[in-house]
Amino acid sequence: MKAKVWILAIVAIALIATFMLIDAGGNWDYVLPRRFKKILAIVLTGGIIAFSTMVFQTITNNRILTPSIIGLDSLYLFIQTFVVYLFGSTHMTLMNKNVNFLLSAALMVLFAGLLYKWLFKREGQNIYFLLLVGIIFGTLFNSLSTFMQVLIDPNEFQVVQDKMFASFNNVNTDLLVISVVLVLGVAAYFWKYIKYLDVLSLGRDQAINLGIPYDFVVKRFLIVIAILVSIATALVGPITFLGLLVANLAHQVMKTYQHKYLITGSVLISIISLVGGVLIVERVFTFSTTLSVIVNFIGGVYFIYLLLKENKSW
Known about the structure:
Elements (H helix, E strand, L loop, with lengths): L1 H20 L6 H33 L11 H16 L4 H4 L1 H23 L7 H25 L2 H10 L9 H18 L6 H4 L3 H6 L4 H23 L5 H13 L4 H26 L6 H23 L1
C-alpha cells in the first residue's frame, strides 16, 4: 500500500517539476514566481476537492455522490449572477477579488450551516433528507440564476459566463494566502475526527453499535466539507466531476478500507490529473480548450460508466 502511495507521489512531483521547468528559456526570475502561484492553486484546489469528496462519500455510503449535490456550486453561481444583476459588472464586489472571494465563501458556509441546523434540529432526520433538500435548493438557485441571466445586459452576461467555468489562469495571490490559512485551520480542526472515518464507512447502524457518536461526528464532517468546497469553488470556480473521478480511482488503485491511504491516494491522483491536464492544455492543445472542459468530459464519461456498472450488478 505504501508503495502505491510513493509511486503516485513520485509521478505528482515529476509532473509539478515538468510544469515548473519546461520551456523556461533561462528567464527564471520571471517564470518561476508566476508558475509557482499557478501550481499552488492547482495543488490546493485538487487536494480540497479530493479530500472533501472522499469524506462525503464515506458518510453517505455512496460512491457516485459529490458535495456539489447539496447545492453549494449552484449557490456560488447564484451569488455571482445576483451581484451582476443588482449592481452591474463594474461594482466593487466583482472588481475586488478579495471581497468577492470572502463574500462568496462566507455566504456558502452560512447556507450550509443554516441547512444543517434546520435539518438536524429534529430527531429522526437523516443525511438522505439533507441531500434531498440540497438538490431542491440547488435547482432553485440554478433557476433563479438563469432567470436573471436572461434579463441582464449581454456584455454583463459575458462576465457571468466567465464565472461559471473553472479557471486556473486568473488566481489572485491574495486569494491563495487566505485559502491556505483557511485550509490549515480546517485541517487542524478535522484531525481529531479523522479516526472515525474507517468505522463510518461500515454504515450508520454499525457505527452507532461500535460506540461512534454518529450524528455529532457527521455534522462536523458536513460543515468541514462545506467550508472546503466553498473555498475551492470561490477560488477557481465549479468543477463538477473532478471529485467523483479521483475518489473512485483512489478506491480502485488503493483497494483498501483505510482512509489514511484512500485520502492520500485521492489527493495525489487529483494533483496528477490537474497538473497533467494543464500540461496537455498548454503544450498539446495550445490553450484552444480549458482544463475544466477536459476534466468534466472525462469525469462525465466515467460517471456514466459507474452507473452502467452498478446497473449490471443489480
